[in-house]
Amino acid sequence: MSQDRTTTLWRPTGPEELDLLRQADWRRWPPRLPEQPIFYPVLNEDYAIKIAKEWNVPHHGAGYVTRFEVDTEFLTRYPVQQAGGRTILELWVPAEELDEFNDHIVGPIELIHEFR
């Protein structure tokens, strides 16, 4: 993460979450389902692409990658989690904190890749 005012994050997603994101005018992530206690944005585009292609496409028929900016100072509350190799980096945002997390998104969430 940089010392800039915002930090760029990516989120691989499936069609259902993408539809909810559209309904929120590309400004807020939808609430988590009961079986989703954590919201996982990732810290690099390549990792997001890998998840979209290798998990979302086989399970949902399509995978998408979004990019968005979040207030850097706010993100300091979430330690970077290494979920595998050196570049497999995520933030773990508890579902009950997602509304506050959404309040710190700067600008719209962008759809940058689509895979089928």
What's the arrangement of secondary structure elements?
Layout: E1 6-13, H1 15-23, E2 38-39, H2 45-60, E3 63-71, H3 72-75, E4 81-82, E5 89-90, E6 93-94, H4 98-103, E7 105-115
Antiparallel strand pairs: 1-3, 2-6, 3-7, 4-5
Compute the number of structural domains: 1
Q: What's the β-strand tally?
A: 7
What's the order of the H and E elements?
EHEHEHEEEHE
Q: Class in CATH? A: Alpha Beta
- The end-to-end distance, rounded to whole angstroms, is 31 Å
Biggest sheet architecture: 3 strands, antiparallel
CATH architecture: Alpha-Beta Barrel
Strand content: 25-35%
pLDDT below 50 for ≥5 consecutive residues: which ranges? none
Coarse structural class: alpha+beta
Assembly state here? single chain
User: What sort of overall outline do the alpha carbons produce when their principal axes are compared?
Assistant: globular
State the helical fraction.
25-40%
What spatial order of strands do you see in the largest sheet?
A: 1-3-7
CATH topology grouping: ADP-ribosylation fold
Which value, in Å, is the CA radius of gyration?
Answer: 13 Å
- Average pLDDT rating: 95
Helix segment tally: 4
Protein name: ADP-ribosylation/crystallin J1
